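Q: Got a minute? One more chain.
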Amino acid sequence: MRILDQAVYVGPSLYAHFPVIRLDVDLGELEEWPSGKLGTAFTDALIAALPGLHEHTCSYGVPGGFVRRLTEDEGTWMGHILEHVAIELQNVAGEPVTFGKTRSHGATGQYHVVYQYEQEEVGLEAGRLGVTLLHSLLPPKLRPRGSVPADFDFAAERDEFIRFAQRRALGPSTMSLVRAAEERKIPWIRLNEQSMIQFGHGRFQQRIQATVTGRTPHIAVELASDKEETNRMLANLGLPVPQQRLVQQAEDAVAAAERIGYPVVVKPFNANHGRGITIHITTAREVETAFEVAREHSRSVIVESYIAGEDHRMLVINGALVAVAKRVPGHVVGDGKRTVEQLVEGVNEDPRRGIGHEKVLTRLVFDHQADTMLARKGYTRETVPPAGERVFLRSTGNLSTGGTATDLTDLVHPDNAEMAIRAVKAIGLDIGGVDFLTSDVTESYKEVGGAICEVNAAPGFRMHMAPSEGRARDVAGPVMDMLFPPGSPSRIPIAAVTGTNGKTTTARMLAHIHKLAGYHVGLTSTDGVYINGQRTVAGDMTGPVATRMVLSDPQVDVAVLEVARGGLLRAGMGVRHCDVGAVLNV
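A: Always. Here it is, folded:
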């Protein structure tokens, strides 16, 4: 089986109304070997490698449909199998694609294998890895020479593929905002390889970077990143905060700890995700060690008083508290039989845990911080903890380091809710996450104590969207409603013109009419891109790149798109929806 060619469709095409990849595949002698003829040795190994294939509905329309196609009667052909493998590999990597179809094309044994993708590079790599996997499962006599590396290990390749996909994927918070936009039929464009997204078209657009929006003041983000200044500002407003000192030298850190009084916390001045933090430090030697750990992440280090209590993240959006989660650091629970290392392996078998942001929880890992946490208890990885004992591998409850979350939104005391809202407003954020330590969030901090450790710009949403316990919260919806209040527009009118002769003339006429009517018009044509009558880019600009230029321009009120018929066939439309479509000279 060989991939002869490939095509990537960025928008509506002959095959689907959404982005798809087409692989032109030659099965060679496998045309004579459907799955039924290959037998259970092949099909069982395939399903063992990708158990999620059980959920594929295929032509039967119900889970298990594809497995029936594989195993019933003569089975199905390798092109069709590759289609489902490419889809499932993307699913495994966290991309919820479902569509595919395979059709014979050209000479005997040649097929168009079409499947949905979210990220172009990931979709193409899924096809390539799928071919290698299928070759590896074939009987040796059917396996082309050199088609499978000698050291091929699918489990290792799968995990590397997941990491490959995650390096390119939108994070869970950004993706939740994209999904919320799609639910509201708000168009979106990914602007870079990170998490910068444009929602809406032309003059109605709004931008985000992760959970920072175009409306988030720069000074507020800078202030939130300055933990010392945040602490001082909140204290000046009478909000509860720990005592704090900023230091640059280890001896100054020890002196600060002694002035504040033990126990203390040592953390980087401007790191995030719980990196470099050491809590409940009780000796000068521990302060020195913690200082060096924190210095790996920041030149300046903060020493602050240790506040006893549980860690809570309080999410404030547009002046309202929308979610509260109690966070528990990554840990294992002893059973009196297994070592810490074996307990970690058991926890990581939880299907909810994955690599990085692949799933709702992150796998526990052993590293310097985990070993340090164990050493403080006199434990090693080989220690067998007593039954029921919780053994922590992290000092902070970040989900990105294996922590868990419990939703407490409906239980938070009104005083604590008001405190969080005041703190975020004081910093100036439209979206902010307050890290609040207290023994009981259901009681007022005025009665039981507590303190705000940090106010975070760009707070993560994952703990609220998929808590380990409690109710999942829609936290992306309030953001989209802030950016696009119900009833407000997100799309500009779009006219698309294709066909044979007259496309450019017709498109220019439409653009001119709209300009005379007082609109800022974006025009794509065979001689360039025009914004309000001024050519900004010369050349044949009738494809998806030009479409994106026009729709990303914040001045544009109306888009007129000349679409080349050849480009339409090769790459699809550059936009998912148009208000008017004209096909000339039919």
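A: The mean pLDDT is 94.
Q: Perfect, thanks.
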